[in-house]
Amino acid sequence: MKITQIGVRNSGTSLDERAFEAPSSGDPVDRKRIQGAMGYALYLLDVDGIIRTWNTGAQQAMGYPAGDIIGRHFSCCYTAEDQTAGIPAQDLAMARETGRLETTGWRLRKDGTRFRAGVLVEPIYDGEGALFGFAKLLYDANEHHDTSRALEETTRNLDLALSNISQGLCLFDHRGRLVLSNSQFSHVLSLPSRVVSRGMPLSTILRRIGERAGVPRERMAAYVRNARKQFMHRPEANRPQVTMEIDHLGRSISVVTRLLSHGGWVSTIEDVTERRAAEKRITYLAHHDHLTDLPNRLRFQESLSALAKQASAEQPFALLYLDLDRFKSVNDTHGHHVGDALLKAVARRLQESVSSSDQLARLSGDEFAILQIPYRSVDEAKALAQRCIDNLAEPFEIAGNEICIGASVGIVVHARAGIDAETVLQRADLALYAAKREGRNCCRLYESGMKNPLRLRNELEEDLRRALRANQLELHYQPIVDAHTGITTACEALLRWHHPKRGPISPADFIPVAEERGLMPELGAWVLEKACRDAVLWPAHIRLSVNVSPAQLIHANFTHILAKALANARLPAHRLEVEITETVLLESSGTSSRILNEIRAMGVGVAMDDFGKGYSSLGLLQSVPFTRVKIDRGFVNGLGNNPKSAAIIHAITELCRSLDLPITAEGVETGVQRQALLDERCHELQGFFFARPAPAMALEPYLSA
C-alpha cells in the first residue's frame, strides 16, 4: 500500500501543525483518504514523532479521541517494554532508511488493554525531498489473520467445488477473456489441460477447440464471430440465458450460458451423449412393444391419424385388423411364458408377410394391425390378409409344444378426408367382428351397414345384471408367497363368471362392459364383501389383495363401501390391500389421490399393479401413498430369454428398495424366473409356478403351509 503525500498541502521545508490537521471541507480527496479509512487506524507524525492527525479508524482501534492524543508522542501507544527497548525510534529510523516498514507488535489502547497490531510506516517528503514526517497505518492483526484464513478456506472450498462438479465451467469478463475454468471444462472438450489459461480470449479458445475437432477454419471463424456477437455485443438483451447443443468429436455437448449484468458471462458445459442416447431409447420404448419390438398402439395411432388426414382418392390406404384365434387357450393351457413366445413368433411371421412399405404394429394382447401403403386394390388388400392367415395357420414349435392357432382379419379401405382415425379403426373392428362370426380364420372387408358389436355388449350387460342377482359370480384366489420360504403371505381375489348357456366368460370380456355401463360400483362392492368374508377365515398373517378399477375407485361412496365390507366381515384393515393400475390415477388424478389417501388413513394397503407398463409409473410413486409395487407379468415372462426384461426388473427393484417399498412379482411360471427374481431380492412372488387360482375351499393346502 503506497501512502505518500497524504494530507500534505505545504510544499515548504518547514512542517507546522496545520499541515497535519484534518483536511478542510474544500479538500474532499484528502478528507476521504485520511478520515474515511474506516477499519484502519491512519495517522500522521511529524519528524519528531508527534501525532498530528488521527482518523476515525485510529479512534476506534486505540480508544483515544483525536483531542486526547493529537500533540502527544506516538510512543504512548507502545508497551512499556517496547518503549524501554527503544522500539518506537527504531521503527521510524527503519522506515526512513528503507522507505517503508511493515511489522507487527503489541500496542496499548487508552483503557490499558493491549492487542497485536499490524503496522505500516512510510516517510513523507516534501516537494524538495526534505523529510516532512511519517504516515502510519495500523490494524488489528488478529482480525486480519482470521479474515485471511476465512478467505483462504472459502477459496479452497470454491476450488474443491469447481474440481468436483460434473459439468465444465468457465467465466469470461466483459472483454471476452477467460477469468477462470475448472478441469472438467478441458476434459469435456477433450483439450489438454495446459491449452487453456487464464486471460485467454474467447476467440483463441474456440479456435483451439475447432482445431482439436478438425473443424474447417472458415466454419470456425464464422462460429467465433457469432459467439462474440451473441455474448459480447448482446443484441438480444431480453435473453439472459442461452442454451445450445453441439456435436464435438462424436459427442453431444450441452452449453448453457448465462449473461452477467455487469458484462461477461458464465457457461456450464456438459457431455450429454449418454443422456441423449437414453432419451432416444426411452422414446423408442414408448413407441414399441417390449415383447415383439413392433410399433405399439401409440405409434400406430400416430401413423393412422396422419394417414387419415391426408387420405384421398389419389392417396388411399388399407387397414387390416388381425386378431389371433384360440390364443387364450394357449395361455390357459401352457402358461403366459409360452403365450409370449408364441406372440414373438407370430410377429416374425407377420413381418415376413408384409412388404417393406407396409406398417405392422401390435396393438394389445393378441391384436395386430397393418397399414397397407400404398393401397392399389381390394384384391391386393385381401391377398395380404390371406397371406397372413395362411402363414399363421402353419403349426408353431414353442418350448417343445406344437401349437396351432388361426387369425381373423378385418379390412377397411380409406380413401377420403374428413373421417378421423378412431372411426377408421372402429370400421376395421366391425369387419373383424364379422370375420369371427363367420367362423374365424378368414377375412372380411368393411361394408356400410355392418352389424355393430353394440348389440353384443347390450346382451352381455343384461346377462351380467342377471348374474349379480342370481349369484352366478364367484371368486377364485391365487396365493402370493414369500420369495425365500415359499410360505403363503397373501391371496389375490379374481372374479369368475360361468354363464349358464355360454360357459366361462373371461373378465377381459365382461369387465370393460361393466365399466362402460356403470356396473362396476355394484360389482366391486360384491367382490369386496365376498372377499372380506372369505379372508377373515384365513390365518391372521395372510393378506387379502383385491383389484379396484377406475370406475370403482372414483365412485362417491367407495370408501364407505370399503369400510362397510371390512366391518361386516370383521376383517382388520391392515389385512386388506387394494391393487390399482396407473390408469386409475391418470383418469382422475386429483380425486383418485384424495381417495387413496383416505384409504391409507383407514389402514388399508395400496399396491401399484402392473408397474412399469405405463409411462407415468415413476412420477406416481412420489405422489401416491403406495405400500407395495407389483411388477408387470410382461417383464417377468421375459426373464431367461430377454435381456431387456432383466434390465427393467433390476431397475424397478433398485428404485423400490431406495423408496423402501416391498415388491411382488406376478406371472412367475418357471424356476428360472423364480431364481432371477430371488437374485433381484423381490419380497413376494405370484404365478402358476406356485399355484393356480382356485376357489376359497381349495386354498387349505396353501394357507396351512
TrEMBL record:
Domain GGDEF: 315-448
GO molecular function: catalytic activity
All residue ranges annotated as the PAS domain in the record: 42-72
Top-level division of the source organism's lineage: Bacteria
Protein name: EAL domain-containing protein
PAC domain sequence ranges: 99-153
Alphabetical list of NCBIfam families matching this protein: GGDEF, sensory_box
SMART domains: EAL, GGDEF
Region described as Disordered: spans on this chain: 1-28
Classification via InterPro entries: Biofilm_reg_signaling, EAL_dom, EAL_sf, GGDEF_dom, Nucleotide_cyclase, PAS, PAS-assoc_C, PAS-like_dom_sf
Transmembrane segments: none
EAL domain location: 457-705
